[in-house]
Amino acid sequence: MTTNWAAFAAAEPDLATIAEARFEAFTHHVLATLRRDGSPRTTGLEVRFTGGEMWFGMMPDSLKALDLRRDPRFALQANPGPGTGMAGGDVRISGRAVEVDDPATKDAYVKEVEPPQPFHLFRTELTEVVRTSVEDERYLVVQVWKPGEPVRTLRRT
User: Fold this and answer.
1) Number of CB atoms found within 10 A of residue 20's CB
2) In whole angstroms, what is the distance from residue 29 CA to residue 36 CA?
3) First and final C-alpha spacing in the chain
């Protein structure tokens, strides 16, 4: 089961707001894709939130774009920022990235984001959002959301 960013934000607005803020705090994040042989590949990526979607834009024929065309599964980790503080916690998102070729959709994205041309555009379908944070300098708190389920919160000392 998958869902888009708007459906996630409607179901869990607090977690969605925190997650989006973590991704907007820094420009570059870490994307994991699967290579042709099934081994993982990690690369830098910029993420955009617009029109109720989380988008990935990529350079033409980049390895990550070719990976996603072949196997759309991804994992994405928000840039933790400088030092070890991880203000706002650590956010990771998993799902599927679906390439968008529709000219009207790409034109709307270009007007909003102004990416270098040409480019690949992928719309995400989420399968999991995870936020890990520290509470009261005492608890490790892990929030896990999956489509169709409420956020599950685990606290560890």
Assistant:
1) 18
2) 22
3) 32
Among residues 147, 112, 154, which one has the least CA distance to residue 128? 147
pLDDT in tens, 84-131: 666 678 999 999 999 999 999 999 999 999 999 999 999 999 999 999
**pLDDT of amino acid 83:** 67
Q: Which pLDDT score is estimated for 3? A: 94
Residue written as token pair 């169709």: 148
Reported residue count of the chain is: 157
Task: Say if CB 46 and CB 28 are below 8 A apart.
Answer: yes
> Where does the chain have alpha helices with state H?
5-11, 13-25, 63-70, 103-113
Which value, in Å, is the radius of gyration of the alpha carbons in the chain?
16
CA distance 19 to 21: 5
What is the C-alpha separation between 72 and 65, in angstroms, rounded? 9
Count of Cβ atoms closer than 10 Å to residue 83 Cβ:
7
Give the model confidence (pLDDT) of 45-88 as tens digits.
999 999 999 999 999 999 999 999 999 999 999 998 776 666 67
Dig out the tokens for 151 from the structure: 């956020």
